[in-house]
Amino acid sequence: MRPGPASLPAVSLKLWQAAKFVGGIALTILCLMALTFFIGRVMPADPALHIVGQDADQETYRMVYERLGLDQPIIVQFWRYLVQLASGDFGVALLTGRPVIDDIARVFPATIELATFSIIFGAGIGIPLGVVAAVNKGKWIDHLVRLISLTGHSIPIFWLGMMGLVVFYGWLGWLGGPGEVDVFYNDMVESRTGMLLIDSLIAGEMDVFWNAVSHIILPASVLGYSSMAYISRMTRSFMLAQLNQEYLITARVKGLSESNVIWRHVFRNIRVQLVTIVALTYGSLLEGAVLVEKVFAWPGFGQYLTNNLLFGDMNAIMLCVTLVGIIFIGLNILSDALYRVFDPRTRT
Predict the structure, then answer these.
(1) CA distances (Å), origin 145, targets 137, 140, 231
(2) Which of 57, 101, 224, 258 suits a disulfide with 118, CB 3.0-4.6 Å?
(3) What distance lies between CA 34 and its chain's CA centroid?
(4) Dist CA 75 CA 88 (whole Å)
(5) Among candidates 342, 84, 139, 122, which has minimal Cα distance to 223?
(6) Inter-axis angle of helices 140-154 and 206-243, to 10 degrees?
């Protein structure tokens, strides 16, 4: 059935809004890529020199420099990169000699695995701590939670990681050390998802699975502690703002227990805000786990990006940064969708 004249403006408006939304995302990604490319080209790192080495003659260096297109103006280089990208060619990583897309497909699942465990730890502990601290404002438990949060913000994460290795791996021997598994278990499981825990379960290799669990607990806890500190502090602030509202008097007058008032009324009203906090924190974990991955020799995305930044490989850097931008955009879209689930007032 064709839409009537009265409905055409509404249909056109929705199409315009959808086109504007998609165009905004595309423009954001393009600006991010342009900024990254221009900054990368003014960095002191010289990929041609890394390839030929310090002892190469000038002619060899010049040939490689021109082959990489570094002799062209930056605008021309960026345009060539966009044309190459449009054809589905993401380039070859100079550091590994493999297609960049293959490298990222290899390392990114390990970071997803680590970040997922970290956000479960951070949100699973941080949200209840923030609620308890707000309900007991000014009491000893509130001061304790605030101290924990302050410590999580203040202690350098690389130092915390090294101390964790010294105590729980080196001294007590409770947890696994650097890497995803012990050397004995390397290459024992076929990589299907790139996430060792899932792959070992699929293969039925429980020894590998439990060894991988012992290795991921420490880096995930260290990374999750930082996110827990932030999430608990924000949860406490959101709860305090709601605890001063008059609707709580009505809820208590109706005879509701204090736990029902806190969790069914107060906490329900801060869920929308917490969605954004948790989503953005998860995005930060996906792209900001560099120090933890370095300390624990975790073969993930952060370590891959750092190595290529030092090498000056723009093919790898561009795709990594673009992927991070897409992740944050996707998480924001997911947050907006969850808003509509948690808050009916946004369903317009």
Answers:
(1) 10, 9, 12
(2) 224
(3) 22
(4) 20
(5) 122
(6) 120
Residues 6 or more apart from 20 whose CB is under 8 A from it? none
Nearest to 313, CA basis, from 114, 13, 37, 60: 37
Asked if residue 151 lies in contact with residue 222, where contact means CB atoms within 8 angstroms, the answer is no
Residues 6+ apart with CB under 8 A from 300: 107, 108, 110, 111, 114, 289, 293
Distances from the Cα of 28 to the Cαs of 160, 261, 318, 325, in angstroms? 36, 42, 14, 9
The pTM assigned to this predicted structure is 0.79
Q: Over the stretch 40-93, which tens digit does the pLDDT of each residue have?
A: 777 666 677 767 666 677 777 788 777 777 777 888 888 888 888 888 778 788
141-171 confidence digits (pLDDT tens): 989 988 988 888 788 888 888 898 888 888 8
Residue carrying the six token digits 């010289």: 46
What tokens does 78 get? 């960026």
Residue whose pair of structure tokens reads 């370095």 in the numeric block:
294
> H/E/C letters for each residue in 74-123?
HHHHHHHHHHHHHCCCCCECCCCCCEHHHHHHHHHHHHHHHHHHHHHHHH
User: Can you tell me the distance from the alpha carbon of 79 to that of 119, in angstroms, rounded to the nearest whole number?
Assistant: 38
Q: Give the span between the Cα atoms of 115 and 123, in whole angstroms.
A: 12
Percent of the chain with pLDDT over 70: 88
